[in-house]
Amino acid sequence: MRERGNAGAREQVTDSLDRVPPFPRSPVPDTVVVLDFGAQYAQLIARRVRESRVRSLILPYDTPFDEILGLQPRGLILSGGPASVYEQGAPRCDPRVFSGRVPVLGICYGMQLMAHGLGGRTAPAGHREYGRTRLYVDDRGDLFAGLESRLLCWMSHGDSVTQLPEGFSAIARTDGNPVAAMADRRRGLFGLQFHPEVTHTPWGIQVLQNFLYEVCGARAQWTMASFIETQTAAIREQVGDGRAICALSGGVDSAAAAALVHRAVGDQLTCIFVDHGLLRRGESEQVIQTFRDHFQIPLVHVDARRRFLGRLAGVAEPEQKRRAIGEEFIAVFEEEARNLGKAQFLAQGTLYPDVIESGTRTAARIKTHHNVGGLPAMLQFTLIEPFRELFKDEVREVGRQLGLPDEMVFRHPFPGPGLAIRVLGEVTEERLDLARGADAIVLEEIRSAGLMRETWQAFAVLLPVHSVGVKGDARTYGHTVVVRAVTSEDGMTADWARLPEDLLERVASRITRELPGISRVVYDITSKPPATIEWE
Ligand code: XMP
User: Which CATH architecture describes the domain 2-215?
Assistant: First the structure.
């Protein structure tokens, strides 16, 4: 181990690795494109397609047809969305989507748009259909093959198709809606008024699979094993004899990205781990150890703790904190990358939701996310982003298959700015220690109750609030800690975790007993929205 200075104390681990034998480059798997007319539905549809082992890509609704065709999709799915087709400014796709060159399935708004665009009529429904609705299937060919003729489906719409376009027939109806599904088999165009992608339509996956396999003829080729093979070959080709670096955060995305790039190019990859001193107890040692044990990837460990603390001195405002940490991180990373010399490639664990959001984002900024996986494409680097197409659970599966240990694969998400945004007010060493201690107790207790996988995140927050207490007959006036535990699917929305009372009691008594200076522990029972998961 070689140490130098505060800001740059670094450790170079340079075990050499045998290069894995080359893999043949696999062809691109059969793909279905989802056109996004309202983000949440589109992602769910894309996930269902992937669960059916067909590759799916989400594109903005107005993507030109030529661009779509360039991806050689087997089929297209138009998602639902909140608009009405006859509203001014309602989202519309390229009309050539309905030309019959590629099979299309329109769902809810997607079906209404198909009807509208091909000369049919869509109008506000006499009464809104919402929730579980009885469906009568009149044609059990293709889409409804293998299903009963009476089913319960999930509806959520205010508009309906009131006149079919030429060439179409109704293939299912409900009590209130004569066109609950429609088809023009000659052109391969289909529409569903209900939502097959939601779990409330439990047989909906079969309709989607009938569309994928029977109508589009797509083959089930999307597996994480084949993804790893394809990406390994692609990365090897991209990097050639060059050198790559990867910023490790300790989380699964950057760790799996490093493991994959390492699989492709061996020790042409060097990882950089910047310890900003805002990590949880024992975390930095754990990240390094895990990498040594499992990968022996050449690793530069930068101890930048003092440097970050210095930069944060006197900063209490959340956005200022985030900006300061983000800027400092880039500065340290750039310095280290320069020290390493001639790396041309920067590997990152960017995920598909980040890519989709940055392509179509219209939402207001709630907080500036600083993400180790979100370094700007600095100067001379070419990015390697093998997970640009994957969702988090797919990356977890890739990590698992690449041999990452479970504690890393299923690690709770941890924000890039770390404990700094869980120490409200100014970040000092003393206050960080308190937050770190409380955090460790929360996690220990949840882990020993076997509830880690059931919670999306669990942590402690140190408030800039003192309150009166009593210890051994004496008055105390100490810090307040918030315990936060949430359940969530994707971090976009979250519910507070209903942790057992005795567990909460143990957490509170341990924190107040083991951490002098903390006299009160409260449990956060706010969901997201209206709150966010983190406090800053
Ligand atoms: P919020 O607090 O916005 O958090 O509900 C949603 C998810 O994002 C994580 N988070 C971050 N992750 N850099 C990150 O890499 C950040 O700046 C950041 N801020 C929040 C948070 O922990 C939760 O999982």
Answer: 3-Layer(aba) Sandwich (3.40)
